[in-house]
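To the wet lab folks,

You asked to see what we're planning to order before we commit. Fair enough. Below is the target structure as C-alpha cells, and below that is the sequence we designed to fit it. If anything looks off to you, flag it before the synthesis order goes out.
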C-alpha cells in the first residue's frame, strides 16, 4: 500500500453505470484482490485509473462524463471502502485524449493575449489552454527552452493567426482580447526570484539565496512592479475585451477556469469535453514548478507589510474602478 499511496485520488460514490464503463478484473480468490494487485493489473491494461469496490472487486478505466472525480468522499491514502463507494488510484498510464495539438490555418484566429507578470504561472496556463483546445499557443519571446519542451508556437509570428493565445508580459493597448493572469504576489515574487537564480522555469531556490541584499531589493522591485503592471493591464483594454483569471482559482478548479477562457475567447473545440476529462489527470505538464514542501518563509516583517500594502491598493482599485471584475482573493499575510 505504501508503494501506491501517493497515487491515491480518493473515495467516491460508485456511478450508476460503473460496471458498463470500466474493465472488470477476472474473478479470483478475494484475498488476491488488493489495491496493489488492482493497480498493477490496470497498468497492464493501459488504463489511467484503478478502482476497488466495497465488494473487493477490481475495475479499470478512465474519467467519463458520469465519473469526473468530483466530490471526493475521503482522501486518506488507506480508506475504509463503504457500500456503494469506490476507492480510486491514478496509474502511471498517460491519458492521451488531451495530447494532440495543431496549428490552425493561417489567419484563422484573432489575436488574444495572455498577459501576466513573470512568476504568475503563464507557462502552466498555456499548457492547460493547449491541452483543452488542441491548438498551440504563441508568444512574443521566442524562448528556445519552452519550444524544446513542446511549446511549438513559441517561434510562430504573433500575426500568423495560427495559435490560440499569445504570451506577453508587457502592457499593450489594443483592440484585442486580453486574458490577464494574476497570482498572489508572495508566491509570484518567490517563483520569479528562484527562476532567475536557478535559470530554470521549474527551479526551486536554495535557502541561501534569500539571505542576501539582492533578495530584499528584489522583493521591493517585484512588489512595485506587481502593482503597477496589474493596474496597467486592467486599464489597457475595454472591460468587454478583458478576462481576469486568478492563478489560485486555476489551481483549485482548472476545468472550471478553462471553460471561462474558452467561452471568453470564442474558441471552437469539437472535443472539449473529452479534453477536459483528460485534464482532470494530466494537469501539470513539463513546466509546472513543483511545490515547496518545507515551512521556510523568506519574507521579513517589513517585506510582509510592503506586499500587504500593494495588495490592498490593487483591491481598492478593482473595487472602485473595475467593479465588473471578480474580487481580488485574500492574498494578505498576517504580520
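Sequence we intend to order:
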Amino acid at each position: 500500500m505504501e508503494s501506491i499511496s501517493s497515487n491515491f485520488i480518493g473515495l467516491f460514490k460508485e456511478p450508476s453505470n460503473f460496471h458498463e464503463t470500466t474493465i472488470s478484473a477476472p474473478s479470483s480468490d478475494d484475498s488476491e484482490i488488493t489495491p496493489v494487485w488492482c493497480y498493477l493489473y490496470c497498468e497492464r491494461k493501459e488504463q489511467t485509473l484503478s478502482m476497488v469496490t466495497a465488494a473487493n472487486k477490481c475495475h479499470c478505466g478512465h474519467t467519463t462524463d458520469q465519473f469526473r472525480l468530483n466530490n471526493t468522499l475521503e482522501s486518506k491514502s488507506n480508506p475504509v471502502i463503504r457500500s456503494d463507494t469506490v476507492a480510486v488510484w491514478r496509474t502511471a498510464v498517460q491519458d492521451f485524449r488531451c495530447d494532440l495539438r495543431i496549428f490552425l490555418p493561417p489567419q484563422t484566429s484573432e489575436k488574444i493575449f495572455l498577459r501576466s507578470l513573470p512568476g504568475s504561472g503563464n507557462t502552466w496556463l498555456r499548457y492547460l489552454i493547449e491541452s483543452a483546445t488542441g491548438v498551440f499557443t504563441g508568444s512574443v519571446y521566442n524562448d528556445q527552452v519552452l519550444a524544446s519542451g513542446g511549446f511549438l508556437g513559441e517561434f510562430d509570428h504573433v500575426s500568423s493567426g495560427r495559435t490560440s493565445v499569445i504570451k506577453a508580459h508587457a502592457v499593450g493597448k489594443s483592440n484585442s482580447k486580453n486574458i490577464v493572469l494574476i497570482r498572489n504576489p508572495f508566491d509570484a515574487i518567490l517563483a520569479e526570484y528562484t527562476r532567475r537564480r536557478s535559470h530554470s522555469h521549474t527551479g526551486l531556490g536554495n535557502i541561501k539565496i534569500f539571505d542576501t541584499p539582492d533578495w530584499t531589493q528584489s522583493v521591493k522591485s517585484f512588489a512595485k512592479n506587481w502593482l503597477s503592471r496589474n493596474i496597467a493591464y486592467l486599464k489597457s483594454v475595454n472591460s468587454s475585451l478583458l478576462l481576469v483569471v486568478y492563478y489560485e482559482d486555476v489551481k483549485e478548479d482548472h476545468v472550471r477556469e478553462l471553460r471561462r477562457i474558452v467561452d471568453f475567447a470564442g474558441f471552437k473545440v469539437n472535443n472539449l469535453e473529452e479534453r477536459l476529462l483528460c485534464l482532470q489527470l494530466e494537469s501539470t505538464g513539463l513546466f509546472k514548478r513543483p511545490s515547496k514542501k518545507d515551512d521556510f518563509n523568506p519574507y521579513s516583517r517589513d517585506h510582509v507589510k510592503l506586499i500587504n500594502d500593494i495588495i490592498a491598493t490593487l483591491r481598492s482599485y478593482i473595487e472602485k474602478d473595475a467593479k465588473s471584475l471578480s474580487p481580488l482573493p485574500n492574498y494578505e499575510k498576517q504580520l
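Structural context that might help your review: Residues 180 and 328 are 13 Å apart (CA to CA). Strands lie at 8-13, 23-24, 49-53, 58-61, 85-90, 112-115, 138-139, 166-168, 177-182, 242-246.

Thanks,
Computational group
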